[in-house]
Design a protein that fits this description.
Blueprint lengths: L1 H12 L19 H6 L24 H5 L6 E3 L2 E2 L4 H11 L2 H17 L7 E4 L4 H7 L3 H13 L8 E3 L11 H7 L4 E3 L7 E9 L3 H12 L4 E9 L5
Parallel strand pairs: 1-7, 2-7, 3-6, 6-7
Antiparallel strand pairs: 4-5
Length: about 240
Amino acid sequence: MVYGWLKRAQSLLYTPYCLLCGRRSRLHRELCGACARDLTWNRYFCGICAAPLPPESGTRRCGQCLKSPPPWDLARSPLLYAWPLDQLLQRFKFSGDLATGRLLGELLADYLAAGQILKPDVLLPVPLHNARLRKRGFNQALELARPVAQRLRLSIAENLCVRSKHTAVQSELDAVARRRNLREAFIIRRSMDGAHVAILDDVLTTGATAAALTLALRQAGAATVQVWCLARAARLP
């Protein structure tokens, strides 16, 4: 309720303009209706890994998850990694545009608030290694998590996990190299005995990062692990 009041008050005091086309937005946020319709929404997806499925498939699990399910319990992602979302994400991550990050976090928060999800005990943004954090200046997963935590009334476990290995950039690797790159990359700092955890990241591609972090959480005692991502990308070969 308070969140709704604040958004209405903001709309009265501040006229938002779309971050994609620059036109005035009537959606009370920095995205106009036309550009919102250009986003590719992930409407038909695997309930385990959130990979897009054909509307006529009649199933809620993809072949990969039927054959070899990931270690987490479920994944949710409102959007597909496609134009124009890719432009917004790149502007956010690589140009330090935190206003764009706030918009993207709000889109994810809207999706999660409207869905039937298990509310976690812990919201865990995927951590960056200190070297990459110093270079970038911020953790994109943490910035996306802020609107989600506010909307769903969750606390962010910012210091729960550390990334102990300065790994290569995942986007430059194939699927096998991504899994190898992240072995034992995460350390959980306290017992998670019986906890329900939601991992939050920007893009889910092969799931290597989420899988490595899930295994670390399982070893610390986590009972269930969800993966929340803004965008789902096509799997790599």
